[in-house]
Specification:
The complex is a heterodimer. Helices cover about 15% and strands about 45% of the residues of chain A. Chain A is α+β, with helices and mostly antiparallel strands. Chain A folds into 3 domains: about 1-120, Roll (DNA Polymerase III, Chain A, domain 2), CATH 3.10.150.10; about 130-240, DNA Polymerase III, subunit A, domain 2 (DNA Polymerase III, Chain A, domain 2, Roll); about 255-370, Roll (DNA Polymerase III, Chain A, domain 2). In chain A, the strands form 4 sheets. Chain A has a 9-stranded antiparallel β-sheet with strand order 6-2-3-4-18-17-16-10-14. In chain A, strands 15-11-12-13-26-25-24-19 form an 8-stranded antiparallel β-sheet. In chain A, a hairpin with a 3-residue loop joins strand 21 (about 295-300) and strand 22 (about 305-315). In chain A, helix 1 (about 5-15) runs antiparallel to helix 2 and helix 5 packs antiparallel against helix 6 (about 330-335). Chain A is elongated and about 80 Å long. Helices cover about 35% and strands about 20% of the residues of chain B. Chain B is globular. The mean pLDDT of chain B is about 85. In chain B, strands 5-6-1-7-8 form a 5-stranded mixed β-sheet. In chain B, strands 9-12-10-11 form a 4-stranded antiparallel β-sheet, covered by helices on one side. Chain B has a 3-stranded mixed β-sheet with strand order 3-2-4. Chain B has 4 domains: about 10-15 and about 80-170, Alpha-Beta Plaits; about 15-80, MutS, DNA mismatch repair protein, domain I; about 185-230, Orthogonal Bundle (DNA polymerase, domain 1), CATH 1.10.150.20; about 245-345, Dna Ligase, domain 1, CATH 3.30.1490. The longest helix of chain B is centred in the last third of the chain and has 22 residues, at about 260-280. The chains are: A alpha+beta, B alpha+beta.
Chain lengths: ~375, ~375
Amino acid sequence: MKLVISKQTLVSALQIITPITDKSSSKPILSNFLLKATGTDSEGRVEFSATDYEISIQGEFPARVEQEGTVCISAKRVLEICREFLSDEVNVGADEQLWVSLAGGPARLRLPSVEIGLYPSMEIMELPNRFRISTTELKRSIQLTLFATLTTETRKNLMGVCLQLDSGGNVRFVSTDGHRLAQVSRKVELIAGEDPPEVIIPRKSLLEMQRVLDNSEEMVEIAFDERNLLLTSGKMVMTTRLIEGKFPNVEPVIPKDNDKTISVNRERVVNALKIVSIMSNDKIKPVKLTLSSGKMRLESEQAEYGDVADELDVEGYQGEEMSIGFNARYLLDVFNEVSPSETVEMKMKGPLNPCLIQIPEDSGFLSVVMPLRIEW
Amino acid sequence: METQTQRKIIHVDMDAFYVSVEMRDNPALKGLPVVVGGSPQSRGVVAAASYEARRFGIHSAMPCSRAARLCPDLVFLAPDFNKYCAVSSQIQAIFRRYTDLVEPLSLDEAYLDVTRNHMGNPSATWIAREIRESIRTSTGLTASAGVAPNKFLAKVASEQNKPDGLFVIPPENVAEFVRGLPLASVPGIGRATQEKLSTLGLKTCGDMQALQAGELEFHFGKRGLWFHQVCRGIDDRPVVSERVKKSVSVEDTFSRDLDEPSQVREKLAELCRNLSVRLRKSGVRGRTITLKLRRPDFLTITRSRTISIYIDDAETLYAETLRLFQLSGMKGEKLRLLGVGLSNLDNDIQGPSGNQLCFPWGLPA
C-alpha cells in the first residue's frame, strides 16, 4: 500500500473515529482502525473505518493512491503523531511484513499493522425508515435534548434520546431523566417509512454523532429499524445500535394549562442562577424562585455558609406572590442550551407542578422541569 | 478527680400496647382474650396479646393459626398502625417534658435519662410516677416503668411489676438484686442461650458472676463479654436520643405464595412506593438498594447494588429492584416474602436540600 493524503483530511478523519476506538485493554484489537486505499492516482480514495461493536464509522476521503492495500493500526497513536507533522501532506506506506510507515516531511513513524482479518467486520445495512434532515437542524436537535438524558445507569431506557417519526414526516426527539424532559419537533423530508418504530439513540452515540455532523455536508440522511440507526453524510456513514426498551410516554406530563407565564432575559437568569447556586451543596443546588408582579427573586441558603439572593425584572406575571423551588442545575442546563435565544418563557402553575420552558424563536422546542420541594 | 455521677435511667414500657389501644376504643373487648395481628387463617403472626390471651400461652410473634388453636374464643383484630403511631407521639411528648434524652425502642417502649432533667427533679422515682400518671390521664392507657442506674437494669425493672407497675432498683440494691436475677430475665437471653447456660449449671446472674470473662467469651463469643458485665449489673451504654438511621426497608409476607412474574412486579412496585414514602418521611436518600426474597421453603436471599446517586423515588427504586430480581436467580420460583431496602443513606446532608419531584411514570399500576 502506498498513498499520499492531505494532513488536514487525515487528522479530521482520525478525530472523528478515534473517540470510538476502545481504550480499554479487554479488547485490544478495538483500539485500531482500518485504513483501506483503493483506486489509482487522482481517482484514489482512502476509507477509514472503526467500530466498538456499538458504534461503527466509515468514511471515504480523496487521496493519491499509488498502490492499493489495507492496514489496521492504532488510531490514537497515528492521530497524536500526524497532528504534529509540519508538512501539508502525509505519505502512508506499508510493506509485505505489514510495517506501516507514516511520513510528514522528514519526520516519520513506523508502526506494525495488526492482522486485518482480526478486526470486526462492519456492514452497511439497508434500513426501512429513512428521512433527510439539515445538518444544522439535527445538530441543534441533539444539543437541545442531550442535556436532559439520564447519565447514571439506573434506567437504561432513559440513557438516550427517543426518536419518533410519523408517516407525515414529523420527527420528534425526546429525552428525560425522570426529573426534567426536553423535546424538539421538526418537519423533515421523509424518504421511506410506514409506521416507523419509536427508537432510543444512546447518549454516547449522539456525542459521537455530533462529531460526525461537525464534518458533514448540508444535509444528512437517517435510516433506522428497531435495532440500528444509520447516519449518512456524503461519503461518511455512522451506524449505531439502539437501546432496547420502551421510552416513557411524556405527553401526559407536558403541562397544558400552566397560567403563570413569565418572559425572562436568558443571560440575566443564567447569571442569577450561577450566583445563587454557589451557596448550594454539590449534589442538588436548591434555588427558590419567588414571583411577584414584574419581579422574580432567586434565593438560596445553606446553614453553614450563609444565604444569597438576586432579583430581576420579568415580563408577564401579574398576580399573587408565588414561590417555587428548583434544582438550579436543571434550570441552568436548559437556559444554557437554548443559547443564543435572548428570551426564555417559563410557564408555571404552582409550587409542586411541572414548569414548562419555551423559547420564542423555536416553537418546536420545549422543556419541562419538575420542581424541588423545599422546606426553608 | 470528678467521680462520674450516678445515672438515673427510666425504662417505660406500655402494657400490651396495641391491644390496650384497641380495648380503650372498644370497651366491649375488655376482659376478653384479644390479639392484634393477622387473621387465624392467614400466615400472619401475633403482634400483641392481651393479658387474658397470655393466660392461654399466647405471646407475640406466635403464628396466628397456633394462637387460634390454643384459644378457640380468641378475638383477632387487624392492626391500625396509624392509630398506634398517634398514641405513641402523645407518649413521646410526655417523656420530652422531662428530658431530651429519650431513646425510643419502638412505638411503645423507651429509655429516658433523667439524671439531669427539665424539672430539676432529683428523684427519678417521682418522675417515673408522674410519667405513668400523665400517660394514664392523657391516653387512658397503662404503662410499666423501671428505674435504675443503667439501661439494662431499668429494662429488667420495668418487667418486675408488669402490668401497670413501677419497680425501682436504687444503686445500693444493685448488687443484691442481680445476684438473685434469673438469667432468663436478662434481655437478649432466649431459649437457646438459656439451655446452654443451664448445661453449664448457670441459673442466675449470681451463678454467672463466678465465671471469668474469658470463660464466658469461650462459650458465647462477644456476647459472653457482655454477659460478664450485665451479670454484675454493669451497663455503660448511654441513652441515645437520635439514632442515626442506617437503612430503611419494607417487606411483606403474602397470604398466598407469588408465582406469576406479573404479581411479583406488582408487589415490588407497591413495596417501592411504600419505601419511597417512608424515605421521604424521614427525609433521607440512599444509594444501596437491597432486594430480599424468600421461597416457601424459607430459603432467603438478598441481593444489593450500589449506584452513584442518592435516590428516594419509587420509580428508580423499582427499576433497580426489578433489575436485582432479574439477576437474582429466583425468577420463576414461588415466593412467600418480598422485601426492598435502601441503605448507604445521606442523612448527614446539611442545609435545605429539598425533595426533587419526579415525573409520575414507570410503575405498573
